[in-house]
Amino acid sequence: MINPRQSAAITYVVAERSAATYGDSPLGLADHSGEFHAGPRPGAVLLECPLSIVEDGRVREGHLTDLVAPQFAAFYFTEDGAIPEELNALGRELSNSPVPFQLIPVTRNRPSKTPDLVGWDHTGKLFALYGAQPGSLYLVRPDGHVLARWRRAASAELSGAIEHALRPQLQS
């Protein structure tokens, strides 16, 4: 066994190859985008990467998986922490529903205006590791596996993906 957090040189390869990937699971969506040249595909676990966690104005060192909790998490990649209002509105709606959900911005630059919780890619590695650009979104299941990913996500796609995970037997 190897602790990926203590082996930075091989963290990214080990994390991707050592965990089970459930690509054909009814709890995931097919990855039709073809636009991602890197990053975990639906059914795979998140790749570990160090980042700074900015929470309520305080900064601490951590890893991307520190932001995963027993809830659906949507990681929205952005330059500065800004999230389109359409996604923010859906995030507020889902946060007030029985579905455990959190929309978390992941920023390339240190955010000047900080929402409650932000992941800051202070190493400059996370965006490349995930094949992300500003506007990309990864939706993660409560078990830490990727449910879906988009180069540009609309709120209808995001809510549809969560509905699909909650009721996979109803899908065609």
Quick synopsis:
The protein is an alpha/beta fold. Helix content is 20%, strand content 23%. The protein has one domain: Glutaredoxin (3-Layer(aba) Sandwich), CATH 3.40.30.
Commentary on this structure:
It is globular and about 40 Å long. A hairpin with a 5-residue loop joins strand 6 and strand 7 (146-150). It has helices at 11-18, 85-95, 126-129, 155-166; strands spanning 50-55, 58-63, 72-78, 101-107, 117-120, 137-140, 146-150. The chain has a 7-stranded mixed beta sheet with strand order 2-1-5-4-3-6-7. It has 4 helices and 7 strands, in the order H-E-E-E-H-E-E-H-E-E-H. It has a single domain (4-170), classed as Glutaredoxin (3-Layer(aba) Sandwich). The relative contact order is 0.20. The longest helix has 12 residues, at 155-166.
